[in-house]
Amino acid sequence: MLKRFFLVLFTLMMSIVVMLVAAKNSPGEHVISFDEPIILMISMGIVVCLFIPPLVMSFFGNFVVRIISGVYQCFIVFTFIGLIPIGFFIPSGFLTILVAIAGTLVSIASVVGTLFIGKNKEAKL
Fold this sequence. Notes:
This protein has four helices and no strands. It is mainly alpha-helical. The longest helix is centred in the middle third of the chain and has 27 residues, at 63-89.
């Protein structure tokens, strides 16, 4: 249970790090940046709110709940994967690409951990 929770929590931290890196390298005026901290904080709050369901579901060991949480986290994986090609369009976006790749790997580990950690083991005779 705690392993699943910490994997999802680490994915949340990677999402916030990606957002901060993207805000540092903002290419235009219609994206999040450190110039408008209130919008950046609102964006971080939205990301935290989107991570509440998998964080809550990580406490339950039921197979159906783990499947739902794994599918939910797959959308997070696709978001990180979609951020990788976007990093090529950002001037000096190499750090964004690296953090997006790290976030993808952490998210995949979280999905695998959610689906396979804590399976009920059959009793041996």
